[in-house]
Write a structure and sequence with these properties.
32% of the residues lie in helices and 33% in strands. It is built from 6 helices and 10 strands, in the order αβββαββββαααβββα. A 7-stranded mixed β-sheet has the order 1-2-3-4-5-6-7, with helices on one face. It has a 3-stranded antiparallel β-sheet with strand order 8-9-10.
Length: 235
Amino acid sequence: MIKKIVSFLIGVVLTVFLCFTFFKSPFKDNLNISIVETFLESEVYVISAEYPQFNLVDDNFNKEIEKCVLERIDSFKENATSNWSARGEAYPAPLYFEAVWEPVQINKDYISFVINVYSFEGGAHGNTEVYTFNYDIGKQERIDFKSFINNSDEILNKVSEIAILEIEERVLENDDEFFRSVIAEGAGPELKNYKNFTFTKNKLIIYFDKYQVAPGVFGIIKTEIYFDQIGVDKK
């Protein structure tokens, strides 16, 4: 059996397409974005991924974006191959991985976007993940949540309060104390709870990981908060 599996894996044919598509941003004449697309296909899995690269940023920012996607692909390939080798025909179709980027704000001042990852490595359910990236072009530095709120405990508390109330309205049923405690912990006023965020000219968008504030059936939970609610100015 092991020899059969090894022979199968050695015989897998992978087709890789790396496509760099350059286009002018509608927001800024000299801001160029290149989209890197990767496609891998075998009897074991199908992988489709895309991520952006920018010309007006520090090289480290582009490398962080690239590393995020490539590490997820490598992890998926390892898990998918291992699971397929162990159970093989128990899975009705090739396992799959998809990473898609979504711009939220791209202009002369800021870059803010999200990468959504969908994957099925075997098992009962697939998985969803979210990764966000924010960058200040003028300062040439990445924006984390601490710097976004100017390291203000007051703003962090306001964000947490609004987020908790909104999530409770959406997912809480019958005033369940257990789920209320899960929401309070996952959206409490701690920086680690707000690592995934993007922003527009007038609002903050927060992405809570699957299981962070609600049962997995809810997937990624997104909350939007307007700047005037929390005293932030990013115009």
